[in-house]
Amino acid sequence: MKKKIDFPRFYMACTVFLTLIFVMLFCSVSWAAEQTVKVAFFEGEHFLTEDDNGHKQGYAYDYLQAISYYTNWKYEYVYGTWTELLEQFYRGEIDLMPGLSKTADREEKALFPGYPMGVESYYIYAHADDPLAQLRGSAFDGHVIGVNRYSYQYDLLKKWIREEAPGAQIRLFDGNESRQAAFTSGETQETVTTALNINYGMNMVPVRWIGGSDYYLAVSKNRPDLLEKLDSALGEIVAIKPNFTNQLMEKYFQGNAVSMSLSREENRYITEHPVLRIGYFANYLPFSGKDPDGNVQGVITDIVSNMLHFLGIERRVTPVYISYDSMDAMLKALKNGEIQVMFPCENDVTIAEEEEVFLTSELIRVPMFMIFRGEYQEDMVKRIAVVRGNNFQKRLSERLYPDAEAVECESTDEGFRIVEAGDADVMLVNETVKDAYFSKVRNRVLNTFPLPENRTICMAVNRGKIPLYSLLERGIAALPKNFVITSTYEYIGASSSFDIDNFIHEHIYTIFIVTILTAVLVIGSISYLIMSRREKAAYDRMAHTDNMTGLWNRRAYDEDMERVEKKDLPADAVYISADLNELKHCNDTLGHEAGDEMIRAAADGLKEVLNPYGKVYRIGGDEFAAMVRIPRERQKEILEALSQVKKDWTGSGGQRVSLSLGVVAGDEIRKLTLHEIIAEADQRMYDNKAAYYQQTGHDRRK
């Protein structure tokens, strides 16, 4: 007997089921709906910044944007000082406060997610030329130390003074800008901040550590709904990118806090050792090697020259390079005192301890590859080509293939030929050597296979040479990110040589065609060369010209300044830094077309005045620079004309041109390095811009 279906109950169950589905879909849509969230925006070097064009960046800004990708939040930024914004946050007028340390008191006033935004240490900083800095700390009696009001640093400083320096005084500030200004002007002798806020060139050194803490993207007590979404978003980010905050740290803060001020011991070492003897392995291009005349070449020269430059000691220290045909011989020379520094060294602390040397921080990490003939097979490695004297290659070969026979060769090129001829099965080389060889030789026989190994390369000094080690570490920390790997490109071609067999092998078909059609190809080649030169000249001009203004562009500026830096400047040289005022206001009120019109007008004015005397460059959105030669008797006249550039010009929207200028000329040119000239001109331009906005009463952010 069939059981009858109870249709009313069936319909009711279906209705409930569909209702639940609808509710779930509605919640999902609601969750994804855009939501406006108010965020505190306070200026902090590399943490939160905004330029005159409204371009925002910084650690906290990237952090906030990443969260918005998982929450669909749209941010409304509330500007102010740290003190002002924190008070608004506690009153519930702001939803999110970045960079807030968690304390018991603050936990009563704010909500904190389960994931910290970052971790920072707090230091007392002094001016680099302060005797206190040379000693890396001393008595603080009578000193005034600046710190931000309502900050965790303030709590730590009070505790430290109470326990360590009762004679010191505290002065409170509402934000980073006013605190730093007071320190710069000398109103306070020291200042408290985190290393993350220190920029290269500030010339500040830490003299005392007073504590540290995690900091968070805090949520208003009135918005627990946001906390739930924030925790969920951070959980997703951490699950997918566990090193997310470390990557942000590397992006914004790597090298920023490096102090270029040398300690007393470092200065003494330089005075006693004005010549720095550097040993290098002569068969390790692109890192180190010899040119055809027997002189040093390779990345080592770029590393050392840039380190000395960044430390400001290029005139006090003369590097002398000494080549060695084996790393063992170079190590022996280091131990005997013939050299002070050896390069390259494998960043293996176990080996370093055995050899009693100090290793610097890593300069570069490169993947390793196997070079072999034919098809790869697991059991193919019976004989390994090893360059004589290359301990890196020897140790790696012995570790990975302990039963294989080592076939010694004199150079990497010879090793490639040995493998190609079948006299060795494989050779292990780093990626730069592999790329150098195969960029020159399109080999049809040899193949490559990546190894689960990386080579980390550094320098080494004798154990106990602490001031020298400290100097090298300071210099390495100041090098730009990826400096070493990008420097290898210049030397890639020098690391592989050709013989006639390679040439014929690679160009056999071309040689055959050239033999048959010599006359035609010669004529064609000549025509092609003429056309190529014309095209190259045209492309070169395009590559060095700013499309909007017709001025020379940033690429041209960098290349020209590099050439200028290598020679003495003439007495009539003048360097000018210029920046357009009110561009952001023009863009916001009249549109970007009006802003572009304003930039072009300023560029035309600069060309009219300065083109007869040298080059004018557009090096940024509204930033210009010029390196010109103006006869001393005409400098005052020309600079006066420059200050009046386009004063009578009016744009289509009524906008006017106003330039902030910074000029370095006369005797100053001969006394300063190019780096110092540019920095001084930029500073004068910034002072001129500040005076302009103070005089007009306009807000730079609007």
TrEMBL record:
Pfam hit, one: GGDEF
For this protein, the parts annotated as crossing the membrane are 508-531
Domain GGDEF residue range list: 571-702
- Give the matching Gene3D superfamilies: 3.30.70.270, Periplasmic binding protein-like II (3.40.190.10)
The residues forming the signal peptide are 1-32
Domain of life (superkingdom):
Bacteria
User: What InterPro entries does the record point to?
Assistant: GGDEF_dom, Nucleotide_cyclase, Rev_trsase/Diguanyl_cyclase, Solute-binding_3/MltF_N
For the keyword Signal, the answer is: yes
The protein, known as:
Diguanylate cyclase (GGDEF) domain-containing protein
Query: Which classification does the entry list for the species?
Result: Bacteria, Bacillati, Bacillota, Clostridia, Lachnospirales
